[in-house]
Amino acid sequence: MNDDLEEVAMHVRRKKRPEQSAQSILHQLSEVRHNAERDRFELYVAGDLVGVLGYSVEDVGGQKVLTVLHTVLYDEFTGHGLASRLTTGVLQYVVDSGARVRPVCTFTRHFLTTHPSYAAVAV
Domain N-acetyltransferase: where (predicted)? Predict the structure, then answer.
């Protein structure tokens, strides 16, 4: 019996840690979609809707401005960087469309202060 335990212990010690974290896998399975009909961006993980970012649009001096109103995730998906994934998708849309963003949402405001590469698109 003792030999069996030693064999199991050696097998356990040889196991490598996973090459990817659960957070990394969630990000790979996630997709940001723009739902213009509902004025929101949606975050899907493995095909399931898990979060939304609502916005309004206005024209300010001939430039399109997206006002980010709120970012919401289902509770079980918080704490894995998915709100950042959603926000990054929205900000990339803003950059690509030549628009600006007005962050009313506290999460988006915080994100912009911690990611200076997007500071130029903020109003």
Answer: 33-123
Tally of domains in the chain: 1
* pLDDT value at 10 more than 80: no
- The answer on pLDDT for 19 being more than 80 is no
Contact 109, 119 (CB under 8 A): no
Domain that holds residue 101: 2-121
Nearest to 83 by CA among 25, 41, 120, 55: 41
Q: In this predicted model, which residue has the larger pLDDT, 20 or 100?
A: 100
The Cα–Cα gap between 91 and 103 comes to 11
Q: Do the Cβ atoms of 103 and 109 come closer than 8 Å?
A: yes
CA-closest candidate to residue 108, choices 69, 74, 63: 69
Is the pTM for the entire model greater than 0.70? yes
CA distances from 15 to 3, 19, 122 (A): 19, 12, 47
